[in-house]
């Protein structure tokens, strides 16, 4: 089943088209990566899908319904945001108590284990917590809610590398035991690349890439070797990246059938292109092809 369908979805603010004609279908029970440079429209898309802002045009279906003021859909949805605000008097224990009442599939024993693992001081005022501890609250809520649809919008801010690793491990482990649909927005692309089954890259409000990660591994390749051999291999083709160092060269290019064999025969080394490298190539190429911000057409 498809968990999320959007058709030509757009969100216009006064001066920007934050989202511009987004058409997507996200399968249920998968971990989807929502990637994009700053201001690409990731948070805006997640806010639309959780009914927090209204679309300017287009349509969407989330878990089979319109999310706007729809308790059936929203009770099955968790949206974890780094910028979550809490009342001044709140302690983590208050947030966890509210979450326990709000999410039908809440697992208190799992929440307790996560609190311990992330060393969350549950009785300290939230306003006194460190940034990493604040992120920890969101992660505990996002995981222990076991919501059929969970959005994590850069949930790691302030978390150190060890705690981020713990989050990825927990997500993967719990996802395997309790499959659900996860949409994860992050700038730490290499760290999450192995978790993602499907990736959407937004750029300037539009979908730049919408693909399964399996397909991406075959989408591009990097060849390296003697500069003359690399040049001969590239003949007539436009590489995504090409660097020369003395008599050696490296080139990354969109893959075609037979490339690997031809590169091997030419004596070149072949390496796969990481998701992070592909992301940088695609968004950089798009930036030079378009304006940085899409101006709103005035009527
Ligand atoms: N309430 C708002 N009013 C006006 N413009 C907004 C508003 N919210 C978002 N925008 C603009 O919409 C665009 C998309 O913003 P959004 O927060 O969705 O990006 P993002 O991909 O989540 O970025 P980041 O990775 O930096 O968090 C940006 O240009 C942003 O300035």
Automatic annotation (TrEMBL):
Indicate the segments forming the ABC transporter domain, all copies: 4-229
Example GO molecular function term?
ATP hydrolysis activity
| UniProt cross-references to SMART domains, sorted A to Z | AAA
Instruction: Give start-end ranges for the coiled-coil region(s).
Output: none
Q: Which SUPFAM superfamilies match?
A: P-loop containing nucleoside triphosphate hydrolases (SSF52540)
Going by the UniProt record, its keywords in alphabetical order are: ATP-binding, Nucleotide-binding, Transport
Q: Which CDD domains match?
A: ABC_DR_subfamily_A (cd03230)
Query: What is the protein name given in its UniProt record?
Result: ABC transporter domain-containing protein
Origin species, per record, is Agrococcus pavilionensis RW1
């Amino acid at each position: 089943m498809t968990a999320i369908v959007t058709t030509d979805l757009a969100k216009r603010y006064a001066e920007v088209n934050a989202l511009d004609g987004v058409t997507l279908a996200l399968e249920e029970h998968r971990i989807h990566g929502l990637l994009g440079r700053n201001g690409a429209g990731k948070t805006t898309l997640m806010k639309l899908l959780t009914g927090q802002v209204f679309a300017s045009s287009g349509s969407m279906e989330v878990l089979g319904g319109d999310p706007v003021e729809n308790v059936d859909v929203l009770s099955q949805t968790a949206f974890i945001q780094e910028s979550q605000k809490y009342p001044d008097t709140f302690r983590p224990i208050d947030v966890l108590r509210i979450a326990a009442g709000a999410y039908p599939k809440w697992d208190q024993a799992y929440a307790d284990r996560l609190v311990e693992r992330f060393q969350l001081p549950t009785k300290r005022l939230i306003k006194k917590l460190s940034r990493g501890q604040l992120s920890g609250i969101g992660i505990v809520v996002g995981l222990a809610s076991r919501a059929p649809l969970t959005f994590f919008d850069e949930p790691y801010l302030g978390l150190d590398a060890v705690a981020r690793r713990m989050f990825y491990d927990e997500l993967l482990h719990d996802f395997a035991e309790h499959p659900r649909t996860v949409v994860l927005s992050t700038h730490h692309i290499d760290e999450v690349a192995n978790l993602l089954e499907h990736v959407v890259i937004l750029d300037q409000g539009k979908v730049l890439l919408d693909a399964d990660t399996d397909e991406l591994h075959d989408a591009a390749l990097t060849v390296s070797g003697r500069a003359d051999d690399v040049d001969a291999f590239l003949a007539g083709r436009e590489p995504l990246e090409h660097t020369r160092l003395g008599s050696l060269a490296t080139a990354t290019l969109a893959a075609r059938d037979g490339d690997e064999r031809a590169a091997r025969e030419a004596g070149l080394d072949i390496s796969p292109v990481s998701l992070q490298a592909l992301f940088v190539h695609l968004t950089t190429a798009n930036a030079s092809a378009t304006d940085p911000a899409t101006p709103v057409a005035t009527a």
